[in-house]
Amino acid sequence: MARERRETSLEARAVAAQRAYVEALAELERTVHIANCPACRPDGTMECEHILRCSSAEAEKERRRVFFRDLCDELGYVPVGHGIALPAVHCPSQPRAG
Ligand SMILES: [Zn+2]
Known about the structure:
Layout: H1 2-36, H2 47-75
The structure holds zinc ion.
């Protein structure tokens, strides 16, 4: 069926967009963490550089979120069960939970 095939490729695109969005989300978390954590923050980085990095990571995350959401709208549902999870920020100043 043509319709079915179209939905399959749309779902594949939505899953790829979701993965890209989660990656951007992880990148944003890492960037914000580095900007605010004394242990991870590199020496000699200007405050304004951190602000710039955070806002560009935020903008990228937002761009990918909208792209993913639009694909989900087109698809009619949010694809699940693709094993896409947000990786935790690894920080030397924080002991692992659990
Ligand atoms: Zn840290």
